Automatic annotation (TrEMBL):
The keyword Lipoprotein does not apply. Its cofactor is heme. PANTHER family: P450, PUTATIVE (EUROFUNG)-RELATED (PTHR24287:SF1). This is Cytochrome P450. It comes from Guyanagaster necrorhizus. Keywords: Heme, Iron, Metal-binding, Monooxygenase, Oxidoreductase. It holds the Pfam family p450. Gene3D superfamilies: Cytochrome P450. The keyword Transmembrane does not apply. Heme binds at C425. GO terms for molecular function: heme binding; iron ion binding; monooxygenase activity; oxidoreductase activity, acting on paired donors, with incorporation or reduction of molecular oxygen. SUPFAM superfamilies: Cytochrome P450 (SSF48264). Belongs to the cytochrome P450 family.
Length: 486
């Protein structure tokens, strides 16, 4: 197995953790698998579909998230589904899974009010002649949709004042933040600390010897979540003792479903928070990058809009059946997640010693000792030219439709934005529905999108647990029908 140079300083760790540069260079130089030594800890980094299949599916029982990962994440994620292994993970997964039934995740009224607000806010700003940070806006949309789905009550972050572009006179003005904005900021700060800890590897506790850096933001997050959880537990107890009638609307939320499985407020809080992270940042990040691609690929945008108008019309609310039939829309979403998978790098740790098959049939199997961390990067795997062809770096949704699609049908393990195997994303269908819905609503309202000139045609991807654009994605758009009216 080729050995990459030791990555043992914080600076190189920082670069290493950034999915878009050093890791990519290492993969190019050393091939789809390489070992690295982070501060004395051997790990095997892989971008090979065969190994990822082993880790996630065929040898699932031998690979866990592991103690180091859990300890790093626990001050934010607790023991929720994202951050547990073994029986605790099974408990969370079994408890949560039935909620994600097809019926429930196809309730599009959940998204529509928030989608209408997004469109209205964008129109308002464009009429003032200023651009909008689409990432900020869409994170509010996914936060409001996720909290409504989880608690039955949206935090209404869309009701706050949107930021103005830094280049305008308004851009420097600050406004008093609303409660949902304070919550969202605190949430992001806590996630950033988790990312820093990942960069610092196993010595992160040294940097936090005197202070748990997640404590302050998590106290704000908890002040928001705890009363909602406590109220749900109280309500459920009253129902059980016949003091109040069962509340159907409450029962139809994830929290309402979970309180029927357990009344432990800590388990409930952890699970809700895990799913909030899972459900908000992933879809928000993907939608932001997707709209960036629509700005920079106007022909894709025209074709996608044609599909939207032909399938749903200019104003009707899209249905589940409409979305199912929209092949190009699905291809645009998939191509976005191929180039920018929301979770670009992930990790598992081997429990017992094992081997990985070599990608080269001439070479011996690769020995994986017990307790070896195995980071795997779908970000790099999705860009490997030997798997995706010489145009792997280009944004081209048609690769999910034309003959190139056979690459994926022949080997589905080359495309894993949602992971795979027993820990596959629980919200995959919800995410496709939510993302499709809002894109359709946007393309009904606007004819096309353009980047703010100040973005210089580019965005800077950054990583917390998921990918996001540093500095935002500032855009403008033309309202539908504007041309005809002129
Ligand atoms: C573009 C959208 C999304 C992407 C790309 C995505 C991707 C992923 C990935 C890669 C994992 C595996 C994480 C790991 O093993 O460490 C995961 C797990 C999970 N996702 Fe998603 N996700 C998305 C949206 C959602 C949504 C909207 C929800 C819920 C509302 C959700 C719920 C979950 C849950 C509960 C898990 C944990 C599964 C387990 O460990 O058993 N995801 N997701």
């Amino acid at each position: 197995m080729p050995a990459a140079p030791l990555l043992s300083t914080r600076a190189s760790l920082l670069e290493y953790a950034h999915p878009c540069d050093t890791l990519m260079e290492l993969a190019e130089e050393y091939g789809p698998i390489f070992n690295t030594d982070i501060l004395g800890l051997m790990q095997i980094v892989t971008t090979s579909p065969k190994h990822i299949q082993r880790v996630l599916a065929t040898d699932f029982d031998n690979f866990e998230k592991g103690k180091t990962f859990q300890e790093t994440m626990s001050s934010v994620l607790g023991v929720g589904v994202f951050n547990s292994d073994g029986e605790m993970w099974k408990f969370h997964r079994t408890m949560t899974r039935p909620f994600f039934s097809r019926d429930r995740i196809s309730h599009f009224d959940l998204f529509d009010n928030h989608a209408q607000t997004v469109v209205a806010k964008m129109k308002g700003r464009f009429q003032m002649g200023v651009t909008v940070d689409f990432q900020d806006l869409i994170q509010r949309f996914t936060l409001d949709s996720a909290t409504e789905f989880l608690f039955g009550k949206s935090v209404e972050s869309l009701s706050g004042i949107l930021p103005y572009p830094p280049s305008t006179p308004f851009g420097l003005q600050s406004h008093e933040k609303t409660q949902p904005e304070v919550f969202a900021d605190a949430f992001l700060s806590a996630l950033e600390v988790l990312h820093e800890r990942g960069d610092e590897a196993w010595i992160w506790p040294l940097y936090e010897m005197f202070e748990d850096k997640t404590a302050a933001p998590m106290s704000i997050v908890n002040q928001f979540i705890q009363p909602i959880v406590d109220e749900a537990v109280k309500q459920r107890n009253e129902e059980k003792h016949g003091v109040r009638e069962a509340d159907d609307a409450q029962r139809d939320t994830l929290l309402g479903h979970l309180v029927r499985e357990t009344n432990d407020p800590n388990v409930l809080k952890d699970e809700i928070l895990n799913i909030l992270i899972a459900g908000r940042d992933t879809t928000g990040g993907t939608l932001s990058v997707l709209v960036y691609f629509l700005c920079t690929n106007p022909l894709v945008c025209i074709r996608l809009r044609e599909e939207v108008i032909n399938s749903v019309g200019p104003v009707c609310r899209p249905t589940f059946e409409d979305i199912k039939g929209m092949k190009y829309l699905r291809a645009v979403i998939n191509e976005t997640m191929r180039l920018y998978p929301a979770v670009p790098v992930n990790i598992r740790t081997s429990i017992k010693e094992t081997t990985f098959p070599s990608d080269d049939p001439e070479e011996k199997d690769i020995y994986v000792p017990a307790g070896t961390p195995v980071p795997y990067s779908v970000f790099i795997m999705h860009r490997r030219k030997d798997l995706w062809g010489p145009d792997a770096e280009q944004f081209d949704p048609l690769r999910f439709i034309d003959e190139r699609h056979h690459r994926i049908t022949k080997n589905p393990w080359i495309f894993l934005p949602f992971n795979a195997g027993p820990r596959i994303c629980l919200g995959q269908q919800f995410a496709y529905n939510e993302m499709s819905f809002i894109i359709i609503r946007l393309l009904q309202a606007f004819e096309g999108f353009e980047l703010d000139e100040n973005m210089g045609g580019k965005f800077s991807p950054k990583l917390t647990l998921t990918i996001y654009a540093s500095g935002g994605i500032w855009i403008k758009a033309k309202e539908a029908g504007e041309i005809e009216e002129v």
